[in-house]
Design brief:
9 helices; 4-stranded antiparallel sheet; Muramoyl-pentapeptide Carboxypeptidase, domain 2; about 350 residues; alpha+beta; 9 strands; 2 domains
């Protein structure tokens, strides 16, 4: 287990999930339905190319019929990330998935503020691309229920037809159809020997963080870099402010001055698997922060833009303290130096 323990890891999973939700709402309300739809398309297409085929072996899907493999992929990969999905197999060429409420992607009241264009974007970005990635032009996805429609969650089926599908046929809608009965005994689960409780906890955290890592990058392609960073920073700060009490409870944080806020930051960073140490000099506290998981593998503008937003998560959390504390952040090699002083 990483040094942060389960509570700190779970707190990081929630924090990054909430940042994703907040940024979606901010884009939807400030930039409009088309912008959030295009952003979701780009985000899920990137996630698809990064994760889909590369995960087949570890999820035990190799050699299965394509419709079955795709449905099981979404059940297993989401399950590893802490998102429950039901699976119903009608045969080797038709298999269903159903995301039931409450929906992870639109937690709580957020679902009322996200336009249906967001749903269409991720369906086009990922689900409609499965057949292309598998080299199977007969494979498509039929959506029978969408989250924002007030039906019964996101639900549909992968189907392998008798003919090649045109590009606009890879994703179809059939709202009058209903899934077959759910059989818990037929629900797939990840190989137990590969997915311990420890690994599942970390996977749920990484699942949420990966959406943020790719989300800021893809938003820049829709809104332009400056606007994307502006919204990423503001949404992150607001989420940090809102989430501080939960984060503090998870890591034993004290709502006091700079020294206690620095200890809170170090304990929280441990929940990411990062290394952090605290030094205090009078009323000043310094956190030396190394091995930033959130930035691993990112370079150039993608790294700079994500970091600009991510820092605001923690500035927001510190600003939620009763005491007023200034937070200065500077790069120190591949890590960061956080300096906290009374405001």
């Amino acid at each position: 287990m990483e040094s942060g323990g389960f509570a700190a890891i779970e707190a990081q999973a929630r924090l990054h999930h909430q940042w994703l939700l907040g940024l979606q709402l901010m884009v939807a309300t400030r930039e409009g339905p088309q912008a959030v739809g295009e952003w979701m398309f780009r985000l899920f297409r990137r996630q698809h190319h990064d994760k889909f085929l590369s995960s087949f072996a570890k999820l035990g899907l190799e050699g299965l019929p394509h419709a079955v493999a795709c449905a099981r992929y979404h059940v297993l990969s989401n399950g590893v990330g802490g998102v429950a999905v039901e699976y119903m197999e009608e045969g080797p060429r038709k298999a269903w998935v159903r995301f039931r409420h409450p929906r992870w992607m639109y937690d709580g009241a957020v679902i009322c503020g996200i336009p249906i264009e967001a749903s269409r974007g991720f369906l086009r970005g990922w689900y409609a691309q499965n057949g292309v990635s598998l080299g199977n032009p007969r494979l498509g996805f039929v959506c029978v229920s969408e989250d924002m429609s007030g039906q019964f969650g996101l639900c549909g089926y992968f189907v392998e037809e008798d003919r090649d599908l045109a590009e606009d046929e890879r994703l179809r809608f059939a709202p009058a159809e209903r899934p077959p009965p759910f059989d818990p005994a037929a629900q797939p689960s990840p190989p137990a020997e590969q997915w311990s409780e420890e690994r599942l906890a970390r996977a749920a955290r990484n699942y949420a963080a990966e959406y943020c890592r790719n989300g800021v990058r893809e938003l820049a392609g829709v809104l332009g870099r400056a606007r994307a960073v502006e919204l990423a920073r503001l949404s992150a700060r607001l989420i940090g402010l809102q989430e501080y009490p939960r984060l503090a409870a998870a890591v034993g944080g004290e709502d006091a001055g700079p020294a206690e806020a620095a200890a809170f930051l170090a304990a929280s960073f441990a929940g990411m698997g990062d290394e952090a140490s605290v030094e205090t000099r009078g009323e000043t506290a310094v956190v030396r922060h190394e091995g930033l998981r959130i930035l691993r593998g990112l370079e150039g503008e993608a790294r700079e833009d994500l970091l600009a937003g991510w820092i605001e998560l923690w500035r927001g959390a510190v600003a939620s303290h009763r005491a007023f504390i200034d937070v200065a952040v500077e790069a120190q090699g591949e890590g960061l130096r956080w300096t906290l002083t009374p405001a």
